[in-house]
Design a protein that fits this description.
Its cofactor is Zn(2+). The chain has 354 residues and is an alpha/beta fold. It is built from 12 helices and 10 strands.
Amino acid sequence: MNFQDGSYYPENQEKLVITAAPYGPEWMPADFPQDIAVSMKDQVQKAVDCYNAGATVLHVHVREDDGKGSKRLSKFNELLAGIRARVPDMILQVGGSISFAPEKEGDTARWLSDDTRHMLAELLPVPDQVTIAINTNQMNVVEQMLPQDVQGTSLATPEGMHAYREMTIPAGPEWVEEHIRRLSRKRIQTHFQLANITQLETVERMMRRGVCNVPLVLTWVAIGGGFDQPNIYNLANFVRAVPDGAVLTLESSMLNVLPLNMQAITMGLHVRCGIEDNIWAQDRSSKMSTVRQIEQLTRISREFGREVANGQEARRIYRIGEFYASAEETLARNGFTPNRKAGQRGFVQHALAA
């Protein structure tokens, strides 16, 4: 991404899109009973509350009646239908992990089988997005957490810590390409959850081969444990590699969330918050609900002078419903340089204006 003079001026930036992740499948209801919704009615209401607070993208997981993360697509269908009826403009982004929470005590947190995850393309009502990981990767979500981040929660137990230390993401090239094809056929946007530049480079190569003709709407997930650490050097390096036509959101965990989101707001990027990422106020004196986190980001962004997008504006910014017919169109719309033509020498650039 190129930052010219005036790039930090709010009048030159898109309005802020806030993604809310309020369902937090790694936590048990007892970890934050005031904010973790369990009944279907309460899970739908949580989405409504997030939208009313200013979030226009909802990262969707769903719980069973016993409070455990659900792996049943019928439960996802029920939740999606309930949210669509209440907040039709909200962008519904289904988490491609389908609740990575362990099924029973002693299990390692894991993503479901390739075939099961492909079934996300069959959800009804159809979600706007499904998140996708690129390249099989370690996802040790607790590696950079401190003891005080998890004290008094299920993650502080030896079983909880073991379950999430050992999690990996299965995302080989054959599965990824097939998943994007299935989602695109159903007009579901692929939302890329990327750990580092190598995964971004894989996405670019897929686009250059014409097997990924979609907008580059992505999140930089800086959580450590196989993903980038959230520091200014990794962030700058990643942002510099992202093309100008992309839509980039920043994500981290625990007390890194707010500082990283403040950087995203100033840079014209987009933000994600919610109890899936962090349950604490910055001084850890109290737990902080997803709605309070959204309200905080809304206030900070407006104090910076950057307005928050409404539902329809977020859909335009996120290019919901947009798909491309060829590699050439995909590269141009996302801001990549074109593919090299046969016999072409030197650096490749976009066609010069006549």
